[in-house]
Automatic annotation (TrEMBL):
It holds the Pfam family PAS_9. Its cofactor is Mg(2+). CDD domains: GGDEF. It comes from Dyella solisilvae. It is an enzyme of class 2 (transferase). This is diguanylate cyclase. One of its GO terms (cellular component) is plasma membrane. InterPro entries: Diguanylate_Cyclase, GGDEF_dom, Nucleotide_cyclase, PAS, PAS-like_dom_sf, Rev_trsase/Diguanyl_cyclase. It comes from the Bacteria.
Length: 268
């Protein structure tokens, strides 16, 4: 099919350059193959207009070769038995960028860059169906209020960021580590039994106590802090992530009650 393109400035062409060229030239390879069939289908269907937008992202090919997300509104009219098509192609790169950003912000904790509570629950619920081992731990900074009160809120924030870096550096790619809220963090360890989970938590607790990491405080002086951790393993057939977290929380409570800077395991 020859195009009657009037203007394709957003794809890098002037009207003179593109008028009469095959419209496939403006499509990415992925859509080129199916283009002819799609047009035929649309021509035969009773539908008179269609809109393709970011829900089923379509990409146009810019003259310089880059792909640009576009929205295409296509409609047809019957002119004395001849079907004519009109397509309006709109560059939606800015809109797509904004939507991607908003989507990312909705699932990310701003301070640490970790997944937030909602994202953690969504991701872990997806792996809850598997029958393999799954353990979680809840981690809480000890006397964090005192850190804020003694050094200021900014330093408190820095402690939270540092903690998330240390925990992320020691976690595996399949682990899900997230900010649960405030000074509480949570980890899901797929394929890990309770003894292994306890060892992972104990290792992290000890690394933090011994300050085995690089500091970047303003005056170079480390701020000593410790954490308490509660660990629980999914019992057989347990499918409710909140029940599992509740048991980890009870273990955490016990760790706090029995002196802090400890790892406690849920007995069930
Ligand atoms: N700097 C900073 N502080 C926070 C943030 N979120 C929560 N907090 C503070 O964390 C503190 C938590 O205090 P508490 O719940 O009393 O717990 P704690 O002082 O850590 O005591 P224990 O948990 O019993 O060891 C509060 O003072 C909150 O204001 C944050 O994002 N940044």
């Amino acid at each position: 099919m020859r195009s009657g393109v009037r203007s394709a400035r957003n794809l890098g062409y002037s009207a003179d350059e593109i008028l009469g060229e095959p419209i496939e030239r403006l499509l990415s390879e992925k859509f080129r193959g199916n283009h002819h069939r799609n047009v035929q289908q649309f021509a035969r269907s009773p539908v008179r207009s269609r809109q393709m937008d970011e829900r089923n992202r379509v990409y146009g090919r810019h003259r310089d070769g880059t792909l640009i997300p576009v929205e295409i509104a296509i409609s047809k009219i019957n002119v004395s038995g001849l079907i004519e098509f009109t397509a309006v192609i709109r560059d939606i790169a800015d809109r797509v960028r904004l939507m991607d950003l908003l989507q990312k912000q909705a699932i990310t904790d701003e301070l640490t860059g970790l997944p937030n509570r909602r994202e953690f629950l969504d991701v872990v619920e997806a792996v809850m169906g598997a029958d393999a081992d799954l353990s979680v731990f809840l981690l809480d900074v000890d006397h964090f209020k005192k850190i804020n009160d003694s050094y200021g809120h900014d330093v408190g924030d820095e402690v939270l960021r540092l903690l998330s870096e240390v925990a992320m550096a020691s976690s595996r790619s399949e682990d899900i580590f997230a900010r649960w809220g405030g000074e509480e963090f949570i980890a899901a360890l797929p394929g890990v039994n309770i003894e292994q989970a306890k060892a992972v938590a104990e290792d992290l607790r000890a690394r933090i106590e011994q300050q085995e990491f690089q500091h970047h405080w303003r005056n170079g002086k480390p701020i000593p802090f410790t954490v308490s951790i509660g660990v629980a393993r999914r019992s057989s057939r347990e499918r409710n992530i909140l029940e599992l977290i509740k048991r980890a929380d009870q273990a955490l409570y016990k760790a706090k009650q029995t002196g802090r800077n400890r790892v406690e395991v849920d007995p069930s």
